[in-house]
Design goal:
The complex is a heterodimer. Chain A is mostly beta strands. Chain A has no helices and eleven strands. The radius of gyration of chain A is 14 Å and the shape is globular. Classes of the chains: A mainly beta, B mainly beta.
């Protein structure tokens, strides 16, 4: 089946630093989604990408859909303590699956004040 | 804005018991998805419904069943519970007419099987 590889698995940074994480796949996709999950809560949709090369921002978050359509990255600028959580990339499974999502393994972000 | 509602938020059951989880999608969303997330794992797709019909099926055990009702809410029924069923269960919803891929997740139901 499809696999998404997220890196890094975890990050420990100081407040105010910028963060970058990425997601890669061996398959070509038409959509990349980035979610953030706080402990014990549901994933929250941060950014959705639909076109190769697309760069989209949402406040301090910026995400890009790779030209090869096999990767995506998420940047967080000027991190703050509430950025702590698990960040997942996700994509729509292929074939006739209308909306079934496959998730990466997640990147655990810790921000030290 | 209204979000996905799930109930109960926490559920404790014993082995071999039955559990029912409920999901109320965002108003005007027609598609509902169920995901299971084990400790330290990413969410795994179980099943989805569009307009009350099953639209996709993932790694859902035969002991589990689900349906979507006329008011679009959905229920996940789990029978003969096993210890390994302990997990967070999320419901997500989307609108096929707007953007089926942008799924909005509920807060989850934490199921503990003892």
């Amino acid at each position: 089946g499809q696999q998404l590889n997220q890196s890094p698995q975890s990050m420990f940074i100081q407040e105010g630093e910028d963060v970058s994480m990425n997601c890669t796949s061996s398959s070509i996709f038409n959509t990349w989604l980035w979610y953030k999950q706080d402990p014990g809560e549901g994933p929250v949709l941060l950014i959705a990408l639909y076109k190769a090369g697309e760069l989209t921002s949402n406040g301090r978050l910026t995400a890009q859909f790779g030209i090869t359509r096999k990767d995506s990255f998420l940047n967080i600028s000027a991190s703050i303590p509430s950025d702590v959580g698990i960040y997942f990339c996700a994509e729509k499974a292929g074939g006739t699956s209308y909306g079934k999502l496959t998730f990466g393994q997640g990147t655990i972000l810790t921000v030290h004040p | 804005a209204a979000g996905v509602i799930q109930s109960p938020r926490h559920l404790i059951k014993e082995k071999r018991e039955t559990a029912t989880l409920k999901c109320y999608p965002i108003p005007r969303h027609d598609t509902v998805y169920w995901y299971q997330q084990g400790p330290g794992q990413d969410p795994q797709f179980l099943i989805s419904f569009y307009e009350k019909m099953q639209s996709d099926k993932g790694s859902i055990p035969d002991r589990f069943s689900a349906q979507q009702f006329s008011d679009y809410h959905s229920e996940l029924n789990m029978s003969s519970l096993e210890l390994g069923d302990s997990a967070l269960y999320f419901c997500a919803s989307s609108s096929r007419s707007v953007n089926v891929l942008e799924q909005y997740f509920g807060p989850g139901t934490r199921l503990t099987v003892t």
